[in-house]
Amino acid sequence: MLPDKKNSVTRFLIICILMSLIGVYILGKATYTMTSQQEYWTEVSKIFVRENLKVPATRGNIYDCKHRLMAGSVPEYRMYMDYVVIDKDTAARRKAQEWRDAEFELKLDSISEGLARIFPDRNAQWFRKRLTDGKNRRSHAWRIYPYHATYIQYKECKKLPLLRESSFKGGFYAEVSMQRKHPYGSLAYRTIGDLWRDSDAAKNGLELSYDSVLRGKNGLSHRMKVRDRRVTIIDEEPVNGHDLLTTIDVDIQDMAEKALVSKLQEPEVNGEIGIAIVMEVKTGDIKAIVNMHRGDDGSYYEKKNSAISDLMEPGSTFKTASMMVAIDDGKVDMHSTRDCMGGIYMMHGRAMKDHNWRRGGYGVLTVSQILEQSSNIGISRIIDENYHNNPQEFVDGLRRIGVGIPLNLPFVGKGEPIVPQPNSKIRYWSNTDLAWMSIGYMTMLPPISTLTFYNAIANGGRMVKPRFVKAEMEDGQIVREFPTEVIKEQICKPSTLKQIQECLHNVVAIGLGRKAGNGGKLFEVSGKTGTAQFSENGSYASHKYMVSFCGYYPSDDPQYSCIVCIVKRGLPASGGGQCGPVFRQISQFVMAQQEPRDASSAADSLSVFTPEVKVGRNAADSVSRNKVPDTRGMGAKDAVYVLKKRGFNVSLHGTGSVKSQSIPPNTEAKRGSTISLKLE
User: Fold this and answer.
1) 193: which residues sit within 8 A by CB, 6+ positions away?
2) Residue 11: how many CB atoms within 10 A of its CB?
3) Percent of the chain's residues with pLDDT above 90
4) Are 75 and 220 contained in the same domain?
5) Which of 84, 220, 283, 487 would be 235's cystine partner, CB 3.0–4.6 Å?
6) Domain encompassing residue 673
7) Cα–Cα dist 275/217, whole Å
8) Alpha-carbon distance 339 to 332, whole Å?
């Protein structure tokens, strides 16, 4: 027993000695690492090991209704040079550093000249100094170009001396970030929205409203150096955002913007703000929404989504709503009349004037004529005489027909309608308030609310909510649809609606809105003009006006509604004369994209949109059916007819006459081919 006990003690001592030696070795190694190799490992921890790095998800794209990209994310590169080699092997580090420094000095001129070719906004001397400054500072992350580079530019840089080497050997590397781009520039810019620069945070528009859909979910990673290479290790994969299919039509948007800006620039208009919205009647789809503001340089820009956010006194376009309430309540009908006197009528001690009061006024007018001529006296007398003792009945009637109902649009900063309440404790209700309210003052509406009301008239009395997004998509497949929302099934009695529709048709056919139509040669238009003094800081003394035209087309089978508004200073100020022509151009362009009718009906000498026809239907009949006709010089309507007759599909771009066509004349092409026409 004693020998075994002695052997056990010996073994125990041996184990203790071995454990002590191992402990001393570990302690010594740690001490060596913390002292002799401290600098190296500190650099490694700073540069090559980074925890919990965000892996950005790719933001979803935004498309127009025809799947054309309006906003998308593309990779861009921040380019850096690392001038210091890091390696725990002192000899290897020294050798690699000497090679990198020598190569840098030898190829500096070539690198600088190459970078200047790739980035022409900087010359070779600038790049030489920039690169040299970074080397003198022994920087690990010296940015060699102050802006983002595209993928093509980055690949070109990788062809240059030294930069073509691996990041460990040459020191050149890039950080990739996704940047938001708008292929169609400023078209519908404030509606589509944007992101903050160098950030994935949404700023405004649909980008902000649907941020949770577009953004996706970021992943997580960490970076470290593995065997002399920088390696990013993904810990959690990102989930890319979904795409949005909007209702916007790029072609209609482009044409509406050009037509509106052209009018704003006319000397007698000299507009400060221009707004145009095109809506599809049945669905409420917004096909175009233009918001142009004059900049300090005199040019026009999309600075603010005024069509949705700005509350304005609508002026005479509101008279349609006032008349609808009176007819629906049985106060008047189409045969009712009012004496508009000599153009001036004292309304509770305050002069109510018609626009032609200097010419003697209108005298006696029927209800239809009152709207046709936009008589302030006629409308205000009807409303004041029937509702003065109970103004709340009139205001309740407005809400009944859908005026002032919040639309709850998907935009931050949207304007909510303000309709004065007679029984409000906030504001005193005077004897003249009802009369002036009836002709479009005091009530504050964003233009899109006015359009929604007129769209309901066109839609048989069914009021639908304006729709901007049709669907959410993933990898080209629809994963969620956004159906049309109905605000009110019926805004008024069918008999009332019929009378109002007749009045609006007459406004364009024989009234003040004639310039919005085309004499019935293409299609019938219905609508109402509007002119209102613009209040600034509670005063109308600035001689600022908001002129407008709101309507729909074709009158017999409405497909689209549209509103055009212009804010300007000084006279002349006419909704029919200044907004009507813009409405006409937009409506003719939109309808030209529909299935064409007989080409002989397309000629319209009163319209500046359809130029003189050089060749048309008869000429087309002589063209061989297996060759593309020559449509250059034709108006849009003629060109579409000629090409459709030969079995081709047509895509229109611009306004005016055909300047060029994508498939040359007399070229053989298969039936069903799409031919793009550029109009100027």
Assistant:
1) 71, 202, 203, 204, 205, 206, 207, 208, 209
2) 10
3) 64
4) yes
5) 220
6) 599-679
7) 36
8) 14
Looking at the fold, whether 152 and 196 belong to one and the same domain comes out as yes
Residue 270 lies inside a defined structural domain of this protein: yes
Answer for the pair 86, 43: CB distance below 8 angstroms, yes or no.
Answer: yes
334 or 446: which leads in pLDDT? 446
Do 397 and 541 fall into the same domain? Answer: yes
Residue pair 87/153 in contact (Cβ under 8 Å)? The answer is: no
Q: Which amino acid, 318?
A: F
Which pLDDT score is estimated for 42? 61
Same domain, residue pair 497 and 628: no
Sequence-distant (6+) residues with CB within 8 A of 577 are 515
Q: Select from 96, 88, 231, 114 the least CA-distant residue to 171.
A: 96
Query: Please, which residues bridge with residue 179 across strands?
Result: 74
Count structural domains, the chain.
4
459: tokens are 């839609």
* 466 close to 563: Cβ distance less than 8 angstroms: no
CATH number of the domain to which 644 belongs: 3.30.10.20
**Residue 656 or residue 376, greater confidence:** 376
In angstroms, the Cα distances linking 89 to 86, 228, 447 are 9, 11, 72
Q: Residue 554, preceding bond cis, omega within 30 degrees?
A: yes
What is the model's pTM? 0.76
Residues for the chain: how many in total? Answer: 680
Residue that terminates a domain, selected from 592, 619, 646: 592
Task: For residue 557, give every residue at least 6 positions away whose Cβ sits within 8 Å of its Cβ, in sequence order, or none.
Answer: none
Q: Are residues 223 and 334 in the same domain?
A: no
On whether both 92 and 149 belong to a single domain, the answer is yes
Q: Does residue 133 sit in the same domain as residue 226?
A: yes
CATH number at residue 269: 3.40.710.10
Domain membership of residue 43 (yes or no) is no
Same domain, 470 and 514: yes
Residue 45 lies in a domain: no
CATH number of the domain bearing residue 62: 3.90.1310.10
DSSP H helix total and E strand total for the chain: 21, 25
- Percentage helix, strand, coil, to 5, in the chain? 35, 25, 40
Does the residue 60 lie in any domain? yes
Query: Crossing angle, helix 447-458 and helix 319-328, to 10 degrees?
Result: 50
Output phi, psi for 355, to 5 deg: -65, -20
Q: Are 447 and 466 in contact (CB under 8 A)?
A: no
Q: What is the pLDDT of residues 55-65, one digit of tens each?
A: 778 899 999 99
For residue 531, give both structure tokens: 């002119």
The least confident of 194-203, 266-275, 377-386 is: 194-203
Q: Which long-range contacts (CB under 8 A, 24 or more apart) does 623-630 make?
A: 626/668, 627/665, 627/666, 627/667, 627/668, 627/669, 628/661, 628/663, 628/664, 628/665, 628/666, 628/667, 628/668, 628/669, 628/675, 629/665, 630/665, 630/666
